[in-house]
């Protein structure tokens, strides 16, 4: 039984630490144009500034959850926060794109041990009758941080000059230190399990596999892609993932129990997750660049696009949970994915019309409605697809699938955007590739560049819409009308 002050300390610490991860994911796309200009990063390097973080997070998140059970939730959670904050200091001081990419990878590894620990700590310190309220507060506070983080980050970049993006990383330090102080000053050490192990071989294989595939896609987005290096990257990735699948079938403590993929409902939920979160991550990565570089909006405006999305998603999320209890997950998931697809079409049209207030913002609000209908039913479906003892593992796998989708979205849709951009410009008039910082050019070249950037985003938005509609079809065909055990 934990004292009230201890439970409050845990809740505040988990909110602060989770906010680090959520803010990081939503602020970076807004900061990418400034980072590219400051460090002279190419398009592929800009992709990996995001992807390095996503790669390590998605590869290690299941290991991070298991480490909390094995070594203690508080210690593992605190270790993740410490690694994240130390890497943030390095990111703020980075002098080259390669340094920033390497440090972002360390940030992702820290987040993989930090994010699973937040809800696990709440579950360990709050009794069942209070747990729902605590998780609700955690979710609301984290959502607010995600919504306002890009606005604050955009304002800092807009007013602080070309190097102000570094403050995005410096701000992680006081938040992390407060969370650590609360953990160790007010939270007792929780008993750890003494059995089980960590699947480090599996983590290494899946990191190599996913990383090689993402690298191959990055090569494909180059202005002059090399066929041989693309093929080698894909072959290395496929081989590593095949070895990972074999290893998971024979190790005693697999990070990915293979039998889960014999469950039709579990497979359907993860397919829907992959395609829908692929669409979401891809569109939201390229949207801020389009607003800043093509529509020439201030960074603070570009950051504000996430606010209507977060607000409507939060409001709709509370309703979707009750709706799922009444009618099951199929209809909310199908409608939610379909509405999200329509919002991507709206974003593409708004970009063509260069309509921010009457186009981009309303489309983002519609996207929030669609995703709000998805999140709660999807979680319920995944966690009820297998027995209670494996509900946490199933949820962790689904979380990993969502993050892997984000990793591949930035790489795959980067190929789409880069190709669309190159088809729309005359290299003799418009120097540089997709999204590179603007240099002085004559008015005709500027019009061509703007049109090409908008066309590139339109191609991304259309791709995202099609994949969202595919998600809706999967939801209707593969998921049950009532959440029930397989």
Give your account of this protein's structure:
81% of the residues lie in helices and 0% in strands. The radius of gyration is 22 Å and the shape is globular. It is built from 16 helices and no strands. The mean pLDDT is 88. The chain folds into three domains: 186 residues, MFS general substrate transporter like domains (Growth Hormone, Chain: A); 54 residues; 227 residues, Growth Hormone, Chain: A. It has 486 residues and is mainly alpha-helical.
Task: Give a quick set of tags describing it.
486 residues, mainly alpha, 0% strand, globular, 3 domains
Topology:
Layout: H1 4-39, H2 43-71, H3 73-93, H4 97-125, H5 128-160, H6 166-170, H7 172-186, H8 200-220, H9 227-250, H10 264-294, H11 299-304, H12 306-327, H13 330-353, H14 356-383, H15 391-423, H16 443-478
Helix pairs in contact: 1-2, 1-4, 1-5, 1-7, 1-10, 2-3, 2-4, 2-8, 2-15, 3-4, 3-7, 5-12, 8-9, 8-15, 10-13, 10-15, 10-16, 12-14, 13-14, 13-16, 15-16
Main location: membrane
Keywords: Membrane, Transmembrane, Transmembrane helix, Transport
InterPro entries: MFS, MFS_dom, MFS_trans_sf
